[in-house]
Amino acid sequence: MADTESTLPGNGTAGPFNYTFPALEAAHVKVSVDNVAKTVGVDYSLDFVQKEITFLVAPYPTAAQTIRIYRETGDAALEATFYSGAAIRATDLNNNFNQALYVAQETKNLTIQASTGNLADGSITNNLLATNAVSADKIGSNAVTTAKLADNSVTPTKLSQSYLTTADASSTYQTQAGMSSYLAQSGGTMTGNIVFSGAQAFPKIPANPQTQAYTLVANDSGKHISITTGGVTVPAGVFVSGDVISIYNDSTSSQTITEGASVTLRQAGTTNTGNRTLNQYGVATLLCVASNVFVISGVGLI
Known about the structure:
Elements: E1 5-9, E2 17-18, E3 29-33, E4 36-37, E5 44-47, E6 52-55, E7 66-71, H1 90-115, E8 134-135, E9 164-165, H2 171-174, H3 176-182, E10 207-210, E11 214-215, E12 224-227, E13 232-234, E14 244-249, E15 255-259, E16 264-267, E17 276-290, E18 293-301
Parallel strand pairs: 8-9, 10-12, 11-13, 12-14, 13-15, 16-18
Antiparallel strand pairs: 1-7, 2-6, 3-4, 3-7, 5-6, 14-17, 15-17, 17-18
């Protein structure tokens, strides 16, 4: 079973108490004591980097009480949305895939807990079940009994009638295999326009530091090469139109950006082609515009 929560006894102190599961953001980490939900900033503080919580208000949980730290991944919107024509970053794609994976893990764990009689009161909430997610053809006769669910674990306020229907149920969408076929964790093909929301922070450009002569590889697309010596070579037959690579000269000496065999390297805004020089602490960006044809521009580029 995937690690989506940590359950541990109190010890009469404020903590800190550690958890082990990964999460996309701090807002997805939740805490309850004896199945009573707690509020971050009021009842406890959260150190998202160290993966620990500390209670703020006495009396603190005792050894007779159970502290549950769990993940509840948001599913109302994608972690990252992409704009048409914008660069697609590996970090944003991984976050979207991890979001789908985490929601699937949490749903699966709730199912396992329910079937073994370990489902805590309040574990199933409205934001964990989409409309029509549970239907008659998904739950066999007597599949959920009083022996499997604690008294009042599912109440009218936690599970409205619209969540349990006999219609609009597609096994393709409601099984783990079906989810994987629609959003693969690796590989697969994504089609259509990808749009960033207005509030989306600009994606990061991962670094690939180098301390000797370096020839670009396909995996460098979307990254920045931090070079201290030896220069950078742009090879043929590696990149396709739309690939972008940034180069940063992290030194006090000039670095040469070499035009590989069969490559055309054009300096933006000029008729210049061929090798270019990037002065100390200069930054240049390569844009592949056609097969083996690149446009280069930047600060400190000659």
